[in-house]
UniProtKB/TrEMBL annotation, chain A:
A Pfam family matched in the record: PaaA_PaaC
Enzyme class: oxidoreductase
GO biological process: phenylacetate catabolic process
Protein name per its UniProtKB record: 1,2-phenylacetyl-CoA epoxidase subunit A
Gene Ontology MF: a single term: phenylacetyl-CoA 1,2-epoxidase activity
Keyword annotations from UniProtKB, A to Z: Oxidoreductase
Keyword Oxidoreductase belongs to the record: yes
InterPro entries: Aromatic_CoA_ox/epox (IPR052703), Ferritin-like (IPR012347), Ferritin-like_SF (IPR009078), PaaA (IPR011881), PaaA_PaaC (IPR007814)
TM segment ranges: none
Source species taxonomy: Bacteria, Pseudomonadati, Pseudomonadota, Alphaproteobacteria, Sphingomonadales
GO cellular component: cytosol
EC number: 1.14.13.149
Automatic annotation (TrEMBL), chain B:
SUPFAM superfamilies noted in UniProt: Ferritin-like
Organism encoding this protein: Sphingomonas rhizophila
Transmembrane intervals: none
Coiled coil: none
Protein's recorded name: Phenylacetate-CoA oxygenase subunit PaaC
Gene name of this polypeptide: paaC
Annotated Pfam families: PaaA_PaaC
UniProt GO cellular component terms: cytosol
Organism phylogeny: Bacteria, Pseudomonadati, Pseudomonadota, Alphaproteobacteria, Sphingomonadales
GO BP terms, alphabetized: phenylacetate catabolic process
Domain of life according to the entry: Bacteria
Family matches, as NCBIfam families: PA_CoA_Oxy3
TrEMBL record, chain C:
The protein's enzyme class: oxidoreductase
Keyword Lipid metabolism in record: no
Its EC number(s): 1.14.13.149
Highest taxon of source: Bacteria
Keyword Oxidoreductase: yes
Pfam family, one: PaaB
InterPro entries per the UniProt record, alphabetical: PaaB (IPR009359), PaaB_sf (IPR038693)
A molecular function GO annotation: phenylacetyl-CoA 1,2-epoxidase activity
Keywords: Oxidoreductase
Protein name: 1,2-phenylacetyl-CoA epoxidase subunit B
NCBIfam families with a match to the protein in the record: PA_CoA_Oxy2
């Protein structure tokens, strides 16, 4: 999801740690206890969490851009307000998540620097363009739908601040998918042009949505450890399968066709079979070669750089005020 | 502080004599027509400013400010929906009128510029809108009074937030002080329009439907001056007032804003969304 | 804290506490960045009370919070475990005796 590891070559971090402490930590996590900021934790746990939470936060913030692209063009006052409120929620979610990661000793500014320098990753899905209004429907329906699957279990993740942030995120996100599907219903029942938009959006967003769950399990080296630490609750392939099974009937209801000739119900496994994902494309997008990856990064850097004088001004004003108060 | 506007007599006479061709659901009753005109002025101000602020979404100086600006924009879009609904179908009014039928003031259609100009625009507008809505909450028109009573608390917050930023930018760094002064200077010539009273408005004031902005011109002046003093900023020099928005005569900026905002409903007039 | 002039650094962190409704305690809900207390309140309002979550807000600079040491949790909190006589259920009173 927003949080799945993007790279298959994550180096294991080896630090000499007191085996007694490690053992006590593992026992607490295994007993479903929450780990809090000042508790002792293995270095690898801390680093993995900072990477995962900040990646999640970056995804929320970069994710504001494709949808923000349509706020000024939303086709009714109601849709405009809903979309603005939704994108605002994403700013809020990014904010909660950065704050959760900050409790691990990395500042938001450091995380933002890592994003802007290209060192940090974010979900590949946001490197695709929103071409028509139907894309706003498709993002809510598919992208938020996929995100929810991953985020709901994270409300019980082992790191307390992360779990609490996810509780808030999930509560607020509950309307996001529904508003997206509602847009799709309107389009699917609309004019021929609207139906064309809806089908085209599904065609373009389907495969990138499946890729959101990350590399296949046999290519996801840290899954086992992350699941033991309860910072991941289900494997990439399990979640992907669940998503396909849930989404297929929703597409049927809309009268839209999922762009996969291999998609078929498999009675034996009690789920759908689906076609081969183009992993080459996935890794290319992870490397920053997505269709609008450059635009996304340029927009984020510009917002931050253009805001520098504002941040400085407010800090300078407060410094003056404090100096006056001290005098 | 700008002096009150000089009304351009010939333009006004021209507007009076022009056929009432543009209004949607044009009411037969002359009183109703005036009320429809007035709520469109109120609603258009809110909608155009809400549209402008929503352009910031995803691009603000920090995340927290992004959230603040979106909150203000959402309040404004809500107000616009409520005011326009008094005149007719709010969506038809929002998405199917061309420039000549828009009645918002010039101030709100000004492009965002930098954050200082956005805050200057917000400060000058929200301070005015708050004083207006306080009075409109007592309007003899029940619908207007109800919308105003709800909106007045929202706008009190907008005004305070904008004033906070005027003070921080005005009395921050040299660069921010310069930008804030530039922003105010840009917006200043559009302030007199807020206090303009034309024939339509005069008639509504008479009937207690509309509030007379001239009644709070002094309070407005004092409120602006107080914040500028706190911000260590001088008052911009008075400029020739720019008027005409209430009669549909706008800057070039509005046409572009509408082209973006109205593109979908105009391209697919048969569609519902 | 920014150097107060150059660099465009992020603002300091504040902890946010919300009173959900009258009669309840303020409860920690998260944090915001802000240059000063007044804007910290505004940021907290715009971030944490968008869905009618509160009627009152506190903000505290994160740096001003002193937390107990988790290593000392044993000596701080475990001694309370043996003081069962502080709880009303500790006492045996016959059922026939009322209002006690």
């Amino acid at each position: 999801m927003y949080t799945t590891e993007m790279s298959k070559t994550v180096k294991p971090i080896e630090v000499a740690e007191d085996p007694a402490l490690v053992e006590a930590f593992e026992a607490r996590v295994a007993a479903d206890e929450f780990i809090e900021p000042k508790d002792w934790m293995p270095d690898a746990y801390r680093k993995t969490l900072v990477r995962q939470i900040s990646q999640h936060a970056h995804s929320e913030i970069v994710g504001m851009l494709p949808e923000g692209n349509w706020i000024t063009r939303a086709p009714s006052l109601r849709r405009k307000a809903i979309l603005l409120a939704k994108v605002q929620d994403e700013a809020g979610h990014g904010l909660y998540l950065y704050c959760a990661a900050e409790t691990l000793g990395t500042s938001r500014e450091q995380m933002i620097d890592a994003l802007h320098s290209g060192k940090a990753k974010y979900s590949t899905i946001f490197n695709y363009p929103t071409l028509t209004w139907a894309d706003i429907g498709a993002i809510g329906w598919l992208v938020d739908g996929a995100a929810i699957m991953n985020q709901v279990p994270l409300q019980r993740t082992s790191y307390g601040p992360y779990a609490r942030a996810m509780v808030r995120v999930c509560k607020e996100e509950s309307f996001h998918q529904r508003q997206g599907y509602e847009i799709m219903i309107a389009l699917a029942n609309g004019t021929p042009e609207q139906r064309r938009m809806a089908q085209d959006a599904l065609n373009r967003w389907w495969w990138p949505s499946l890729m959101m769950f990350g590399p296949p399990d046999d290519n996801s080296p840290n899954t086992e450890r992350s699941m033991r630490w309860r910072i991941k609750r289900e494997t990439n392939d399990e979640l992907r399968q669940k998503f396909v099974d849930i989404t297929k009937p929703q597409a049927d209801y809309l009268g839209l066709t999922i762009p996969d000739a291999a998609l078929a119900w498999n009675e034996e496994k009690g789920g759908h079979d689906y076609g081969e994902i183009d992993w080459e494309e996935f890794y290319a997008v992870v490397r920053g070669e997505g269709p609008v990856a450059r635009e996304r990064m340029e927009a984020r850097r510009k917002a931050w750089d253009d805001g520098a004088w504002v941040r400085d001004a407010a800090a300078a004003h407060e410094a003056k005020r404090q100096a006056k108060a001290a005098a | 502080m700008p002096s009150l506007p000089t009304i351009e007599k010939d333009v006004e006479r021209h507007a009076r004599n022009a056929p009432d061709g543009g209004a949607f659901d044009a009411p037969a009753d002359v009183h109703e027509a005036a009320i429809a005109d007035y709520v469109q002025r109120l609603g258009d101000d809110s909608l155009i400013l809400g549209q402008r602020l929503s352009e910031w979404c995803g691009h603000a100086p920090v995340l927290e400010v992004d959230l603040s600006l979106a909150n203000i924009a959402l309040d404004l879009i809500g107000q616009a929906t409520n005011f326009l609904s008094i005149a007719g179908d709010a969506d038809r009014l929002a998405f199917h009128r061309d420039v000549l039928d828009w009645k918002n003031c010039w101030l709100v259609e000004q492009p965002n510029g930098d954050f200082a100009r956005t805050m200057a625009r917000q400060f000058l507008f929200s301070t005015w809108q708050h004083m207006l809505l306080q009075r409109l909450a007592e309007s003899t028109h029940e619908g207007i009074a109800a919308v105003a009573a709800k909106a007045v608390k929202e706008v009190a917050y907008h005004r305070e937030l904008a004033a906070d930023w005027v003070v921080r930018l005005g009395d921050g760094t040299d660069e921010s002080a310069r930008r804030m002064a530039d922003g105010l200077e840009w917006c200043w010539r559009f302030v007199p329009e807020l206090f303009e009273v034309d024939e339509t408005l005069a008639g509504l004031i008479e009937r207690g439907v509309a509030a007379d902005p001239r009644d709070f011109a002094d309070d407005y002046r004092a409120a602006i001056a107080a914040t500028l003093a706190e911000a260590n900023l001088g008052q911009p020099a008075d400029q020739r007032p720019i008027l005409g928005g209430r009669r549909g005569h706008h800057s070039e900026h509005l046409g572009h804003l509408l082209a973006i905002m109205q593109y979908l409903p105009r391209t697919y007039p048969q569609a519902t969304w | 804290m920014s150097d107060g002039g150059q660099g465009g650094h992020d603002w300091p962190l504040w902890e946010v506490f919300v009173r959900a409704k009258g009669g309840l305690n303020h409860r920690h809900v998260g944090s915001v960045h802000a240059p000063d207390a007044e804007l910290a309140i505004r940021h907290a309002r715009d971030t944490y009370t968008r869905r009618l979550e509160g009627v009152s807000l506190w903000v505290v600079p994160s740096s001003a919070i002193t937390a107990s040491d988790p290593e000392a949790a044993g000596e701080l909190f475990e001694p309370a475990e043996s003081k069962v006589y502080r709880h009303p259920t500790f006492y045996d009173i016959p059922d026939v005796v009322k209002h006690i």
